[in-house]
Write a structure and sequence with these properties.
This protein is an alpha/beta fold. It has helices at residues 15-27, 38-47, 64-71, 89-97, 110-144, 151-164, 180-189, 208-216, 233-236, 252-264, 290-295, 301-307, 324-338, 348-356, 362-376, 395-423, 428-435, 439-448, and strands spanning 7-11, 31-35, 52-56, 80-85, 102-106, 170-173, 198-202, 217-218, 230-231, 241-245, 266-267, 276-277, 281-286, 310-313, 345-346, 381-382. It folds into four domains: 7-133, Response regulator (Rossmann fold); 151-313, P-loop containing nucleotide triphosphate hydrolases (Rossmann fold); 318-391, Helicase, Ruva Protein, domain 3, CATH 1.10.8.60; 396-448, Arc Repressor Mutant, subunit A. Helix 6 (151-164) packs across helix 7. Bound molecules: adenosine-5'-triphosphate (ATP) and magnesium ion (MG).
Amino acid sequence: MDKLSDKILIVDDELHIQTLFQRILAKEGYSVDGASSAEEALKRLEAEWFDLLITDLRIPGLDGIELLKQAKQFNHTLPCIVLTAYGSIDSAVRAMKEGAFDYLTKPVNNEEIKLVVRNALELHRLTREVEILRNQIKDENKNFNIIGRSKPMRDLFRLVKLVANTQTTILIQGESGTGKELIARAIHNLSPRRERPFIAIDCGALPETLLESELFGHVRGSFTGAVANKKGLFEEADGGTILLDEIGDTTAGFQSKLLRVLQENEIRPVGSNKTTKVDVRVLSATNKDLKQEVEQKNFRHDLYYRLAVVPITVPPLRRRSEDIPLLSQHFVQKYCKQNGLECKQIKATTLRKLLDYPWPGNVRELENVIERAVLLSPGPEIGPEALSQEHQPEEKFQELLPEVAKGALEVIEKEKIQEALQRTRGKRSHAARLLGISRATLYNKLKRYQLSH
Ligand SMILES: Nc1ncnc2c1ncn2[C@@H]1O[C@H](COP(=O)(O)OP(=O)(O)OP(=O)(O)O)[C@@H](O)[C@H]1O
Ligand SMILES: [Mg+2]
């Protein structure tokens, strides 16, 4: 056999049972090892990879059910078959409840062994395949949730990957709707903290005391309305990541409290005199220029340096227009799916309009426009008429621009000629001299402008 054979561990204190299984299963091409006690089995399982565990329920040391539970810590998809003495079906049922794949009653039947083993291994293979696929999907979401192939976005992704594994604070800056929160989530998902919570809070939306109690918690009676103790988000996010969104909109009082939390790594609930240690990675985001806020004394400079160990700027959409087609396609798919529609196509003329628009609301605005366009276009194609007037920048206007300029120039020229003629009381050669043009040119212009003095 070329391929590596599946490895099976058989646990039974009766050696002849071990030998029996080894003989039957080796003939089927499996590689079979034996162990006589739960302890020995666990040692083997820790040291090597097995595809299947077969264990007697009554073995020295831990019983078979306990072995089954502990074996999963080394390989949580490991299938297990239990062996029971004839007449002790109850314990077999218990083992199945604990996650055994199947059971065999002694004395065992050779054909039955082969069948049950084959099924168990097939299940193991499928479970592992599903798990691998699931991980792949998770990974894809991690990376492809954020659409963008433009140079600025590729640079951004590289930076995100680089900082994700560290503990540093990160300040994410960028205009509204550029995807700051998405970047924060990506950092969390790529970090070792990914299994712990990611909590985002809009610091600009709450008054100071409420914000403090949200983040740090409060004790009962600390202010009107505090009827019970409340755990703060910092505690909820323990081991994970917190995103302090709109950090630029916070008050000086809050800023100094936050600074203390970051320096001490501990929080004090409002109204309490006890502090609690917390392990939270702090990310913050703002659409303000925070450095400028510091210069204008609206933001503490010491807090700024704590928060912005690594500053990241998400570029506005107009600086990465090459991402617009891809993003549009992505949102078309999203909203067609959400509305149970066949996936529509964006017409090139529509795309042209989208590329010409400056997108002050960035990706969020594009997403809204596409959602609306998906719903408004009746057929399989999304034409420019599905966009609002605002989102259909006048191409004509752009095409006309040189003509507009030319027209403006003619108006001025005409005025100047009239002025010159008035000053010279209609003497054309004199007027031509004043204007710095030849007489012939003046004649031509008079004709063109239908000026007959
Ligand atoms: N590169 C991207 N790929 C896919 N979707 C994106 C991308 N950037 C932003 N979005 C989507 O656009 C919307 C706005 O993104 P997000 O909330 O992260 O922006 P923001 O910068 O935090 O905005 P605000 O400053 O208004 O809070 C979200 O629905 C998000 O999923
Ligand atoms: Mg946001």
